[in-house]
């Protein structure tokens, strides 16, 4: 590692020596080497990672599992259904704002409506979506949770 630091310092200082911009090249070389060594020690203490120590076979996968994929698809389907059920004006404003990333002013100009109308429709769309998704989540939880009284006869 010391040889690597010395080499890196030399590579950094050499251009200054060539164009004679360094008044004291030895001092610049020593200062650069010292800083590089300190930085290398800091990195080692922060992340003591040894390349090749962890085998690829034992590393955790960052890919979502089957359950997460199924849940994400269901959530997306519920969101699409909730958006489709929004009033036309609210849906148009929401899609322009969230999908096309337009400002309220740009939406106002595109649709030919007042900015206050855009703001109100955007707020209404978000409120309606929140309500629809919360209702959907509540019904999904009630379907997933077994009823404690089912199958019991008084």
Structure in words:
The protein is an all-alpha fold and 154 residues long. The chain has 6 helices and no strands. The chain has helices at residues 2-18, 25-46, 66-84, 88-98, 104-111, 115-144. Helix 3 (66-84) crosses helix 6 (115-144) and helix 4 (88-98) packs across helix 6.
What would the keywords be for this entry?
154 residues, mainly alpha, 6 helices, 69% helix, disordered C terminus
- Supply the helix-strand structural class: mainly alpha
Please estimate the helix content.
55-70%
- Which spans have pLDDT < 50 for at least 5 consecutive residues? 148-154
Sketch the major β-sheet.
none
Topology record:
Layout: H1 2-18, H2 25-46, H3 66-84, H4 88-98, H5 104-111, H6 115-144
Structure summary:
The protein is mainly α. Helices cover 69% and strands 0% of the residues.
């Amino acid at each position: 590692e010391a040889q690597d630091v010395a080499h890196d310092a030399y590579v950094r200082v050499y251009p200054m020596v060539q164009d004679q911009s360094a008044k004291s090249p030895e001092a610049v070389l020593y200062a650069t080497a010292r800083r590089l060594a300190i930085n290398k020690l800091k990195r080692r203490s922060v992340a003591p990672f040894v390349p090749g120590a962890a085998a690829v076979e034992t590393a955790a996968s960052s890919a979502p599992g089957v359950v997460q994929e199924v849940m994400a698809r269901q959530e997306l389907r519920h969101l699409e259904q909730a958006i489709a059920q929004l009033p036309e004006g609210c849906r148009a404003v929401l899609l322009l704002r969230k999908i096309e990333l337009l400002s309220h002013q740009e939406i106002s100009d595109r649709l030919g409506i007042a900015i206050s109308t855009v703001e109100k429709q955007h707020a209404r769309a978000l409120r309606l979506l929140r309500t629809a998704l919360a209702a959907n989540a509540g019904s999904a939880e009630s379907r997933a949770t077994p009823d404690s009284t089912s199958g019991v006869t008084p």
